[in-house]
């Protein structure tokens, strides 16, 4: 969606008459029906006059077109400024200009990452050249007008009109050698580079004739290019990690058979609810579905409410393919608030039990939740769910609710169940035994099989065995406060076990890829970080929110020791009412203790629980 599409002369007039903010606000209201933040209005006020000056001095012929606020389809990202026209040789061109109000920046760790002052504090963000180049590549891979009509040449650059670079440009952080590849492909212009930017724009669009180019870009059908689809497909071919076995194959074929029967021109909806516990291969099915349906030219996206899980999937697939555009297939569950009815052919939602009523910082729509929005936005919605992995009072995606939401929208509901275990060394016995222990089912189930489960007598030993020897990660229940503010640049060591003189920090909240980043070895993952992920070995610190009462010979949940206030439901008023937190804490530990593919080692802060014979498998 493009908010503003006018000739360059009209754009210059709107700026000179101080009408550009008013015009854009009106167009946003007309096309998107929502308000604009004060910071966004300030960016228009500060940046667009700078571009109007460049265009005024560039001597462009009539018919050159300016496109503002081009919202990249199915993303929250928008291209600030795009100009279209022909050059002196009659070639059709479109130039993306990413506008920044930055005053300074510093080199930061990571490919294409810099540090600058944003939103009231110093933050890490992408280099402007990387950002503008990524927008260019996104359009080249998703806008049919640009990858089918090769006559349009798309280029990109960034303009930091307030930024005075270092006098010795070799010392300028944004021009450091580590960013050279991005700057070469998408040049960066600073405050006194206006003549250079004017020259670049003039050489690309000086002859005007940009109306038809702008129309093609604005009306271009949005679907992935053949090149991108082939790159995704190559990741799955012959890769044993994605081979479908038994029930996985049955579930996969069930979805395909329903998809093949769909009349994509009609309004009839279908919803498939796939129920399966930890390690039943839900994600493998979902990723195979995405791969196959992309090849069938379906408009499809893969939804994961857990940001960490989503980022790990993206990094694994991008690393193997080299296509950063693969990121665009993976979305958070809050991305569909404003999506039109039936916009997508298929939406696949993994970890659907983590869906929320409303997205964080999103415009709320009365009577809708995230499940409503996903079903509304697609002709076929596929949800992978496990009610026993609901770990927060905010999690709404239980089977019953998803079924009810689908029926409200007259969507035909299909149910598929998965039982076979593909994690925890394929040990169904371990899951049965774990359920028996955690949920006090009092059954005679002995721990048996190949899964490596051990209880250790100190958190230091847990760290040594899991992290040092096995290369795994430590995880913990939410029985400690989480202070996110660093002290002298260091993460506070919140997870403390005083009796063993042990202290480690929670996982870095800014490090979304904690599970695979080297720094993660000395940090403790929480349930909100690891749900959906799997590792070969995990070490679990069970806090004092889960204890053992030797008199009643049962495991008990201690509300007063559970520190996740946002996930904690209200305490029941009735004396004999069951506390809903009891189930959530047990679910949390079941989820944590099923992240390991080969083994899980446990240390319990509560001494009685750590010595519990049943927990030790005897």
Automatic annotation (TrEMBL):
It comes from the Bacteria. Keywords: ATP-binding, Helicase, Hydrolase, Nucleotide-binding. GO terms for molecular function: helicase activity. Residues 268-395 form the AAA+ ATPase domain. Pfam families: SLFN-g3_helicase (PF09848). This is DNA/RNA helicase domain-containing protein. The lineage of its organism: Bacteria, Bacillati, Bacillota, Bacilli, Bacillales.
């Amino acid at each position: 969606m493009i908010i503003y599409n006018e000739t360059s002369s009209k754009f210059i007039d709107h700026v000179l008459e101080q009408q550009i903010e008013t015009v854009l606000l009106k167009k946003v209201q007309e096309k998107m029906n929502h308000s604009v933040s004060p910071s966004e209005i300030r960016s228009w006020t500060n940046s667009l006059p700078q571009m109007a000056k460049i265009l005024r001095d560039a001597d462009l012929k009539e018919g050159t077109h300016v496109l503002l606020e081009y919202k990249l389809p199915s993303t929250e990202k928008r291209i600030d400024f795009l100009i279209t026209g022909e050059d002196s040789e009659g070639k059709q061109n479109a130039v993306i200009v990413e506008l920044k109000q930055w005053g300074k920046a510093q080199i930061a760790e990571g490919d294409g990452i810099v540090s600058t002052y944003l939103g009231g504090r110093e933050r890490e963000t992408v280099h402007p050249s990387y950002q503008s180049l990524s927008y260019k590549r996104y359009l080249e891979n998703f806008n049919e007008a640009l990858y089918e009509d090769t006559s349009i040449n798309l280029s990109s650059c960034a303009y930091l009109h307030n930024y005075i670079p270092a006098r010795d440009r070799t010392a300028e952080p944004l021009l450091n050698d580590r960013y050279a590849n991005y700057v070469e492909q998408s040049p960066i212009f600073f405050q006194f580079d206006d003549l250079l930017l004017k020259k670049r724009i003039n050489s690309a669009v000086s002859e005007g004739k940009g109306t038809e180019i702008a129309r093609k870009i604005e009306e271009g059908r949005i679907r992935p290019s053949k090149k991108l689809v082939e790159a995704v497909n190559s990741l799955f071919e012959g890769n044993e990690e994605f081979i479908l076995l038994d029930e996985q194959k049955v579930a996969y074929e069930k979805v395909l058979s329903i998809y093949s029967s769909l009349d994509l021109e009609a309004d009839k909806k279908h919803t498939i609810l796939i129920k399966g516990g930890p390690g039943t291969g839900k994600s493998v099915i979902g990723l195979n579905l995405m791969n196959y349906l992309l090849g069938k030219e379906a408009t499809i996206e893969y939804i994961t409410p857990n940001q960490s899980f989503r980022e790990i999937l993206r990094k694994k697939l991008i690393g193997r393919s080299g296509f950063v555009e693969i990121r665009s297939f993976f979305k958070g569950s809050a991305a569909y608030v404003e999506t039109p009815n039936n916009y997508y052919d298929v939406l696949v939602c993994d970890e659907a039990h983590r869906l929320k009523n409303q997205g964080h910082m999103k415009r709320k729509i009365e009577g809708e939740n995230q499940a409503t929005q996903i079903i509304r936005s697609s002709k076929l919605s596929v949800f992978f769910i496990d009610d026993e992995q609901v770990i927060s009072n905010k999690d709404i995606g239980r089977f019953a609710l998803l079924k009810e939401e689908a029926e409200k929208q007259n969507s035909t509901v299909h149910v598929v169940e998965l039982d076979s275990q593909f994690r925890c060394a394929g040990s169904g016995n371990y899951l049965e035994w774990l359920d028996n222990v955690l949920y006090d089912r009092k059954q005679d189930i002995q721990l048996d099989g190949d899964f490596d489960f051990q209880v250790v007598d100190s958190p230091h030993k847990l760290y040594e065995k899991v992290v040092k020897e096995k290369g795994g990660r430590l995880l913990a229940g939410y029985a400690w406060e989480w202070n996110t503010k660093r002290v002298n640049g260091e993460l506070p060591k919140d997870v403390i076990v005083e009796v063993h003189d042990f202290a480690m920090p929670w996982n870095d909240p800014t490090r979304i890829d904690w599970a695979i980043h080297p720094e993660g070895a000395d940090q403790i993952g929480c349930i909100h970080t690891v749900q959906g992920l799997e590792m070969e070995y995990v070490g679990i610190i069970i806090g004092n929110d889960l204890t053992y009462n030797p008199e009643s010979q049962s495991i008990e949940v201690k509300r007063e020791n559970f520190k996740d206030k946002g996930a904690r439901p209200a305490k029941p008023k009735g004396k004999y009412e069951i506390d809903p937190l009891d189930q959530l804490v047990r679910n949390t530990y079941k989820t944590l203790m099923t992240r390991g593919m080969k083994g899980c080692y446990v240390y319990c802060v509560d001494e009685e629980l750590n010595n519990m014979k049943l927990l030790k498998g005897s």
